[in-house]
Amino acid sequence: xxxxxxxxxxxxxxxxxxxxxWCGPCKMMAPYLEEVAQKMKGKVKVIKVDVDKNxxxxxxxxxxxxxxxxxxxxxxxxxxxAGVVQPNTIMSQISNLSN
Length: 99
Description:
The protein is α+β, with helices and mostly antiparallel strands. It has 4 helices and 4 strands. A 4-stranded mixed sheet has the order 2-1-3-4. A hairpin with a 2-residue loop joins strand 3 (68-73) and strand 4. The longest helix has 16 residues, at 24-39. It is globular and about 35 Å long.
């Protein structure tokens, strides 16, 4: 499997969901992220990062509350949002990248 650093350097936008299994709002995000992944298939890659198991990545990107979504393209942060985010908001952010 590619390293996190390699994944986010992709030309294709990568939406990273920083979450924890014990987090209620994180569980609410799961179906939203599935919807985004299905509706934007081929336009975005969605990956989940467990903050408890990947504390180094969480610290590097200063994730202080979960869920936190960060949208990367070519290794750069293009958008980030903490808390529960509606699928339409996420999809519009992804669409903005390709314009």
